[in-house]
Amino acid sequence: MNVMITGAAGGLGRAMAVECARRGYALFLTNIDAPALAAIQKGLSRRFCVKIYAEPCDLTDSAGVDALMAEIDRLGLRFDMLLNIAGIDYEGGFLRREREKIVRIVALNDEGTLRVTHAVLQRRNPDARFCIVVVSSLAALFPMPLKAAYAASKRFLMDFGMALRQELTGQDANVLTLCPGGLSTNDEVCAAILAQGVAGSLTTNAMERVVRKTLDLAWKGRARYIPGAFNRLLFLLGKAVPASWTAALIFRRWTQTQKKWLYPTQIP
User: Fold this and answer.
1) Cα 199 versus chain centre, distance
2) Residues 6+ apart with CB under 8 A from 154
């Protein structure tokens, strides 16, 4: 079984790569950070007896993705699973962030996912079931002041994943949309979780469990996975509360959170 993983050098991507290799899947890994990607490939090759290919790529660059696919074709690879992990966020209010950083959130999270998904669907193993995992977020379920571009980009991915799943009905394929809360993927994320206090703890998910269950549910044909009972409760409450009320509540909470974390001497 061949699995392609984007964002493979990041926290969630790396965890997915480890679990897939543990299950005996052959891997094609990509990430913009070439040295980190090479380190992941080397480490996995030492631990597991599976074939691991790795090729760096900037998914926001169309020509770069074309070159990536050309390498896949040269290797003669056809895939059974695609894990769309690559994504980015720049914390802080909309006007506090540089314009091009805001744009890059959408360019990577949305455009990059579309490029890779479209290309890999044309390179699926024609003789086997095919699975796609699209990583959205708990943030996609609500309007998120102070994380507006990120949350909107993840809402796009959630809707895209659900819609594409329907399009692939009858083609022996499934799309699972993953909507996790907090995941301790790096120091910045850990700081944000800590600044949220009790709410951060309640919405944070254990990485290894999320990874295992995501893979299992994707193969079982599940459409969406929201890890954690508390997060699923938030999802239900969010459907019942007017969006304007939700936005106001979230703004108040994130104002205090970012004041503690990003702007300890200022008012966001």
Assistant:
1) 21
2) 87, 109, 136, 137, 139, 140, 179
Query: Which 8-state DSSP code applies to residue 263?
Result: -
d(CA 198, CA 212): 25
Helix axis angle, 113-121 to 62-75, nearest 10°: 30
Domains of the chain: 2-261 (3.40.50.720)
* Edge-first strand listing for the sheet containing 81-84: 52-54, 26-30, 2-6, 81-84, 130-135, 173-178, 224-225
d(CA 230, CA 199): 10
Query: What type of residue sits at position 195?
Result: A
Alpha-carbon distance values, 79 to 62, 120, 211 (Å): 20, 7, 19
List, for residues 92-131, the tens digit of each pLDDT value.
889 988 999 999 999 999 999 999 999 999 999 999 999 9
* Dist. CA 73–CA 93, nearest whole Å: 42
Amino acid occupying residue 96: R
Angle at 174 between CA 172 and CA 179, to 5 degrees: 175
- pLDDT tens-digit readout, 151-162: 999 999 999 999
E-only strand ranges, the chain = 2-6, 26-30, 52-54, 81-84, 130-135, 173-178, 224-225
Radius of gyration of the chain (CA): 18
Tokens linked to 13: 């991507």
Copy the structure tokens of residue 259: 């004041």
User: What's the pTM value of the predicted model, to 2 decimals?
Assistant: 0.89
